[in-house]
């Protein structure tokens, strides 16, 4: 399997430098010559949509995705409608920020009925697809690791994400493959192949052992047990040649100097992705 | 769905009272009139096999299972052989202790090649089946939650466990359903139905939110998000009427007085299982 020889496809998902605001992240990418950035809405909100757009554009950065829409299941119809409205705002923001992909973190169940929550996810996506299409935004369903099923996302396998996505045209709804979330799945390579034409994003980090924390326990590529290159090759065999986001939730990494994180990230990207 | 009306099937998995030795756990079960106990090998070893056997027998307790065999994948042939030998010892111990079920925690991969590790699990089981049959011991493959894939068990879905088990007669190899490990699985109810005649154990606890720790973060039944009763009903529809083990890894619970834990466990069992 071939190494990547350039960082042309490398994207800083800004959660990796969680202590940086958007301005600092943009400046860091410029200094480190990282061509892509993935934005988070709470970071955009800190400095405002217009300024965020201008900062990214003036820096010449490309935006690989906006994170996140989703969070569809809720106990009441009115709350579910609020979530739909919020997804519409996220779609507008994504378009304004110059990306074509909104990442969906689909949300947890509001009660013990996870099957119904999964239906609410499918229903929610159905409701926002036409709106997203009007803005030229693709919806990327990101299955999260099953350990997040109770708190973040009832969609926990690529199989489920593919099944929902296949209800729509590939230019409308697809999937996001994050190695941290899917590496354990015995059906992974079948499901990646099945997602051909629908992979809207590819995220990398690593699963470190021991895992210090459910949320903040991700590692830098090469520090863990995931065969990242094998997964990348499978993703590329489907035709995906888009940006590769480095998305690491880890407080220890957050507390390192951002430029150091970006330097390590670049070398690990070439070595392990 | 019907409540359980008695604790006839309730088993204390002794990891739930992790600070108790086997003698204390046996005495606790007698005081609280819990008819079953599930033993762990490191607890048996503390006081010796012969004394453990005598203690349990004299108390009139039934042993629902011994935990654990497994841990098959290893980097070298000689190390894999050591694991087989250890499994054979576990089978002898299970028979000596008076249970018919050895729970298999199949083990992590020794490198990034999780597919090969899964083959090593299947190969390891194949090697010990005849030995187990000689002792009248059934091998219960327990899929663990995917968050343990790197450290404890590459078998993370009931689908995988069923696929291996189906290579053998039901009286030789089956599966263990632990709600904590499988509740998130979109294919859960299909796989429980598929396991008909092969379910060798049913374990309960709960998934608490927020989850404080990967290993030690399980909760008492009723404190979390798992629809335990729905899963129990599915398990019983396959014909399983055996013991129900309460298996909770949680240091806060370990630090409570053991009898208090058993009292709560009994009432939660009737209320939520």
From TrEMBL, chains A, B:
Top-rank taxon = Bacteria
* Keywords tagged on the record: Isomerase
Q: Which residues cross the membrane?
A: none
* The protein's name: Sugar phosphate isomerase/epimerase family protein
Q: Which molecular function term from Gene Ontology is one that the record holds?
A: isomerase activity
* Naturally occurring in which organism (per UniProt): Neobacillus driksii
Q: What is the lineage of its organism?
A: Bacteria, Bacillati, Bacillota, Bacilli, Bacillales
Xylose isomerase-like TIM barrel domain ranges (all copies): 42-266
Gene3D superfamilies with a match to the protein in the record: Divalent-metal-dependent TIM barrel enzymes
Family matches, as InterPro entries: IolE/XylAMocC-like (IPR050312), Xyl_isomerase-like_sf (IPR036237), Xyl_isomerase-like_TIM-brl (IPR013022)
């Amino acid at each position: 399997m071939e190494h990547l020889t350039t960082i042309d496809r490398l994207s800083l998902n800004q959660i990796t430098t969680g202590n940086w605001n958007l301005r600092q992240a943009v400046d860091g990418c410029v200094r480190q010559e990282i061509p892509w950035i993935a934005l988070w809405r709470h970071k955009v909100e800190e400095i405002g949509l217009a300024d965020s757009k201008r900062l990214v554009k003036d820096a010449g950065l490309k935006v690989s995705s906006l994170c996140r829409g989703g969070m569809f299941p809720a106990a009441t119809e009115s709350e579910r409608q609020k979530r739909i409205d919020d997804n519409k705002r996220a779609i507008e923001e994504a378009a304004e920020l110059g990306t074509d992909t909104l990442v969906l973190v689909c949300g947890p169940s509001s009660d013990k009925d996870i099957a119904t929550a999964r239906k609410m996810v499918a229903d929610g996506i159905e409701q926002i697809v036409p709106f997203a299409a009007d803005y030229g935004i693709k919806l990327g369903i990101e299955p999260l690791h099953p350990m997040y099923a109770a708190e973040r996302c009832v969609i926990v396998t690529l199989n489920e994400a593919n099944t929902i996505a296949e209800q729509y045209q590939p230019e409308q709804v697809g999937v996001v493959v994050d190695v941290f979330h899917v590496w354990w799945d015995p059906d992974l390579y079948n499901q990646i192949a099945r997602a051909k034409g629908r992979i809207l994003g590819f995220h990398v980090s690593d699963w470190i052992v021991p895992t210090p924390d459910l949320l903040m326990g991700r590692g830098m590529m090469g520090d863990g047990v995931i065969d990242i290159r094998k997964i990348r090759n499978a993703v590329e065999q489907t035709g995906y040649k888009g940006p590769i986001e480095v998305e690491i939730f880890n407080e220890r990494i957050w507390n390192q100097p951002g430029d150091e994180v970006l330097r390590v990230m670049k070398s690990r990207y070439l070595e392990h992705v």
